[in-house]
Amino acid sequence: MTDKPTVAVLGTGIMGAAMARNLLKAGHPVRAWNRTRAKAEPLAADGARVAGTPAEAVEGADVVLTMLYDGATALAALREAAQALRPGLLWVQSTTAGLDQIPDLAAFASEHGLVFYDAPVLGTRQPAEAGQLTVLAAGPEQGRETLAPVFDAVGARTLWTGDYGSSAAATRLKLVANSWVIAATAATGEVVALAQALGVDPQDFFDIIEGGPLDMGYLRAKAKLILDGALTPPSFAVGTAEKDARLIVAAGAGNGVRLDVAEAAAERFARAAALGHADEDMAAAYFASFDKE
Questions:
Q1: Using CA of residue 116, residue 117, residue 118, residue 122, what is the dihedral sign?
Q2: In 3D, which of 219, 218, 121, 125 has the Cα closest to residue 171?
Q3: pLDDT beyond 50 at 1
């Protein structure tokens, strides 16, 4: 095997497409598949081989990388590819999945002789496109040398959290990180909405926190998207944020922790989606502050 393993990328949405392009730029042969083929087709111009089925994508690959909606979707894609899977294939599972889904994914990998890596990523559209994601990974030492150039192509940093993908150590950390992102996003929308409702210029709020412990670049970036009406294309969509918020609530509940903020944020995302903002940036949860547009 060369130091540029062939990678099958299953799922070419916002994140998967960006990761596939960076793998191609780094010299990796890439096979790309997406349920809606039109989302994968543009990658052909970058040098990817676009596959019609998951089985076609994974045939002869050294690494399969799943970046799909959730764990159930990732498992369904691998099941469709089962006939083409070979023992020893490295499965990098980067979809944000629920803690209750990891055992099923790991069990499927074991059943088919795959080496399972729980490897979600931190970052949204811009860092994905720049190859500046943070890869959170858990899995055995034996395949890490092969995966190093893959992770280096898509990320600026890889943080190994454990030796067993089945432990969900990386997913646990990802859910903790996303809980903060979701809370900050919800709070940003509320503070902008409240300022406007009270006749306060949001910029005055930014001025009084500038340079202090309450100031935060993320707050300013998301607030700017709201105020400028620049919610498309999304860095991270409302619909996906709702899904992640519910995974976080479930993870907390399963471990004896009530997460009121995450639960409320999930409902805010759901209301924003119902108002027609599901495919906009998660900052569009702002619209959930109002009964109607």
A1: negative
A2: 121
A3: no
